[in-house]
Amino acid sequence: MARRSQGSIFFLALKNSLLIATITAGVGVALYSIVAYVLVSRRAVVAPVLEALCWLPHILPGILLGLGILWLFLATPLRFVFYGTTWGIALALMVSDSPVTTQAFRAGYLQLGADLEEAARVAGASWGYTYRRILLPLLAPIAGAIGLMNFGGALTSISTPVLLYSHQSRPLAILMLEYSVTGELERGAVLGLLITAIICVMMLIGRRLGLQLSGQQ
Length: 217
Prior knowledge:
The chain is an all-alpha fold. It has one domain: MetI-like fold. Helices cover about 80% and strands about 0% of the residues. The N and C termini lie far apart (about 50 Å).
C-alpha cells in the first residue's frame, strides 16, 4: 500500500510538473512576445509603466513574489480559479519569467526593425496577419530558446510555487524538497536526477529541431 501510495504521489507530481512547465513556456512566449512588441513600438501610452512592471519580478525574491501572488489569490475571486492549482503556479512562474522573456523578444524586434511591418501594412496586411505570418516566424529561434529556458526554470523552481501548491498540484521540485526535509535523501536525489534528465532531453529535442529549421543535419 505504501509503495502504491508513493507511486501515485510521484506520477501526480510528474504530471503536474510537465503541465506547469508546458503552460509556463507556451503561454509565456505568446504573452511576452506581444508585450515586447508594445514596448518596442512605443505607440501605447502605458508602455513605460508596462516596462517597469516587467522588470519588477527581477528585484523580488522568489518567495516574496510567491507571497504577493498568494495574497492576490486570497483577496480576490481569483482564489476560486488559481489558488492551489497548477494554473496558479504556472501564472506565478510566468510573472517571474517576465524580465528575461520580454527583453529577449524586445532585442529580436529591435534587430528586425520596422521596415518589414511597414511594408506589410502598405500591402494591406492587418497587424494580426503581420504578427503571425511575418514577425513570429522570424523570431522563432528566440521563441524556441526562451520556451526551453522557461520550461526548465518551471521544472526546477521551488521558491515561487512553495506557497501556492496543494496536495493535488504539487510539482516534482516541491516533492523533492519534502523528501529532503523529511530525511528521505535517496528519493530526493532520484527526483533531482529525473528533473535533470527531463531538461536534458528537452534541450536535445530543441537543438535537433533548431538544426532542422536552419537546414543543417
